[in-house]
Amino acid sequence: xxGMSTKGKGQKVNVEFVSANPTGPMHVGHGRGAVFGxxxxxxxxxxxxxxxxxxxxxxxxxxxxxxGRSAFLRYREALGEDIGAxxxxxxxxxxxxxxxxxxxKTHGSSLLMKSEAEWLPLxxxxxxxxxxxxxxxxxxxxxxxxxxxxxxxxxxxxxERDEIAALLDELKKRDLIYQGRLPPPKGAPIEDWEDREQxxxxxxxxxxxxxxxxxxxxxxxxxxxxDIAYHRSKYLRGFATMIDVWGADHGGYIKRMTAxxxxxxxxxxxxxxxxxxxxxxxxxxxxxxxxxxxxxFITLREVVDEVGLDAVRFxxxxxxxxxxxxxxxGKVIEQSKDNPVFYVQYAHARCASVARQALTVVNxxxxxxxxxxxxxxxxxxxxxxxxxLAQYPRLVESAALAHEPHRIAFYVHELASDFHSLWNRGKDxxxxxxxxxxxxxxxxxxxxxxxxxxxxxxxxxxxxxxxAPNEMR
Length: 473
Hints:
By secondary structure, this protein is α/β, with parallel strands linked by helices. Helices cover about 50% and strands about 10% of the residues. About 40% of the residues are buried.
């Protein structure tokens, strides 16, 4: 297949993306990371890497306890209780109503007789399972399937051993953990700073700005301790190369995590963190407000249902991941050259239309198209298209090495632009039209060029997870 590469030589790569807290359906910000991660995985596969798509389920910690208490409130509501306004600090979304109803159907009123310590684990897990079902459905709406769903809780609960404890023992043996105090933070507060003697990881030894705590004051593990153990598990599963796709609010976490991976893998593991910046959702230039905490946010599924999978995927990739993205619900469905996804798909449909019309005129076979007289193509616009086509294999490799799938989106748009320009030149110059009825050789050469454009556009769109229609009305 033209453009496909063996550059990766079958090297195993783990791409972890989305990993949204299982506390509700996905919003548009999650969608950008989802599309980026999925397209990056496809790009790496196309370039010859052995890729695993992974989702890290944050099913341990305070946020899932809050989810459990929020679901329990909906359970009480399902039993007929008037719960009034949702208290501050709980998740108010209507998406938890079915969870409460399912709990009521399964347990009747029996959970009301139990203490929170008894009902919380049960309700929490039921809510997590329901939220993960929602998230999987949201991902499927974007044609995304993960190979692995990895539970954070499994690192310390329910497995054959406590993986976090095992990691800490190993780091202690290597003198990478010590008892000490953290200095007060300068400038912005450090979320995990506590003025006390505690177990600290020597993160500065591996390039971080400050050493990091591993145990909370109550003796439980910090999120960072779990994250080190999780990335170590990736390495132990054979992934020396790891790519994490994170949201904009996690940029400050990169140094400590890359330091942790160096330490946990004896320098043999490599972590590349890709940050996906915020998405501003607009409708014809006016910002659409969303707030996950208030329960009135715009879900990703609503956006996909309104504008379609192709528009969402292409536009999420038609800007570099670390730049803020304006996503206008009105503009992405316009049938105009100002709408990039339409512009590229229309180029593919035009190529298919030319092939349908021209082949009936010249009755060309596959052998004819495989042996075109390309030396007849001398117009600068034709040569420009051929030069663009020749760039594709190298572009695939460079984009894969840089972990930048947006390069493919830019490329197919540029190729589409070249092709549309060539098409328009034929309107003004009849000798440049694709079909020259009294010159079969020239027609076949141009048909071969058009077919090559169609093939490469389809290939690039496939990497991006966007369809390549043969007709557009």
